[in-house]
Fold these 3 entries.
Entry 1:
Amino acid sequence: MGKRGTQCTVCAHREASAIDLALARGVSVTALARRYDLGSDSIYRHRANHLPATVRAKLLAGPDIEGVDLDRLKETESESLLAHLVALRHRLFAALDTAEEYNDAGTLTRVSSQLHANLELTGKLLGDLGVGVTNVNVLVMPQYVELRVALVQALASYPEARQAVAAVLHQLESKAAAEIKPRELPS
């Protein structure tokens, strides 16, 4: 409470927790005043009267996670992350429109890059992008065919070895071919 029974405008603000965390992290009062449409003096008073060093330290340390359902937390955080990515993407598209309107090539490039990163992260979060999983069938690569031909030709003067190597290659190729599954077409 401030003077004469009035409530602190920062404590009453719907984003009071975010403001407290930003203050604890060292965000400037001027930036917070502008972002949350508050007076700088109100934020200075709030920091001095309602945000002691112990509270700031606890905010910086993060929440106590004992007894927290980590699976549920992961689910809700993923949903929140996705919502923020979508909201950010809307703002990026608006910035892209503005950059195009003003023919600002530099901003177009930067915003396009950020949109790409946003879409990529969203795809990873949703599991739409296979990250780190690449299957390469070497049996259909031209280099393999060249190696196979050269190997069999090199063994031409050793008919038994040539026959044995060809049989082993055929066996490996047949096994690999049997493991290849056709792609399912979308319905």
Note: The radius of gyration is 31 Å.
Entry 2:
Amino acid sequence: MRKVLLFSKALLRRWWASMSCAVFTFLGLYVAVSGRTNKWLLGASSVAAIAFFIIAAYGAWLDEHRRNIELQRDIETLTDEKARKARLLELKIKISQYATAGADLRNQAPPSPNEVPLWKQNVNHWATDVRNFLNATCSPLASQKFLDTNELTDCTFPGKHSSTWPVLNPLGKMITNLREIIENPDTYLGLN
């Protein structure tokens, strides 16, 4: 019942606006000038009123149709935005896990030379996995950023074997780069 009342209200508002237009004035003038009868005027006015009723009904429907289309667009936009945010969160979590694994590798750098080859192999495996993930799921810029180890200064790492030092410094930079990728998703994650 409420829907019928809302439709009637919209219809009457549009119909009243059309009925108060100058058409009826011109019909009256035409009858006066041409000498037509009042019966003809009543018929012409009835035809005009019915035509305006049909136009008003179409206008009321069209308003609702446009609102419906706008609501559908809004829903699609919200759904797309929700999916984008979910994907962004998923990527940030995965990159964060890679950063944590890299930090663990950095902390596990061996103090003795016998363990260094296996540790370096694990670091290379980690870096390859991260690079492949970034290439497959993010933008090429993210992969470039991850591998950017320029502007490193020589560092020493007390407690770690000296043959790990050339790997520890770039490893630390790659971990920092992963954190920067997470902090700048619009630039690196390609979800715009």
Note: Residues 85-188 form one domain.
Entry 3:
Amino acid sequence: MLSTWTVLALLVFAIAGLRIANQYERAVVFRLGRYSSTKGPGLYWIIPLIEWQQKVDMRVNTAAVEDQETITKDNVPIKVNTIVWYRIVDPRAAMIEVKKIDNAVIQVAQTTLRTGIGQHTLDDVLKEQEAVAQVIQQKIDAVTEPWGAKVERVEMKNVEIPESMQRAMAQEAEALREKRARLIKAQAEFEAAEQLRQASQIIMQNPAGLELRRMQMITEVGAEQNTMTIVMMPSEFVSAAAALAQSVKPKS
């Protein structure tokens, strides 16, 4: 029969091996230096003095990649500030295959960012940031996959370009706006001329319409209370005067 001290020792031994991992944690257990198992979340037991553990956080990590100076495909030097979101999906690989997974992901992101930006023009980087970031994400993820890390998102937080290029882009934008304004003005003048042409055709088909328009103009001038009086002669007088001038013109 076991003695009290033996029972107490076994109880202490059993309690000493109890461990708890939170819902977002996994425990990588080593037995005498060799990988044994991955445990958690919740309550589990390891062999005291023979097994030990390293916990791995499974939540999404945010890594800020410092400003990287790189050159675009069209030879424009820029600085890019990027943020990488990743999570550990394989605790065993993250613990065994790489040392300091956080630093490793950042280093990979820096090198991949420089090479990835170099394959796109400045316009692509500025206008297609989401597409460029997605390509960079896939390249980073391909490197970190054997380490048990999954890159979920890459976003370019800030893109700095030289001041000379900023001035050139501002001049280009101003020229485009001026071009658009001139096109709109030309289109408006064309439409106005077309409307006048259609109105003249209608008046030529019905001369009485011209008289009505003249009367309307006189009414509008009177309503404005102008001091200047405008006398408009009917078109018949103008036609009669033209015919009279033609009849008295000496023949050559």
Note: The first helix runs from residue 4 to 16.
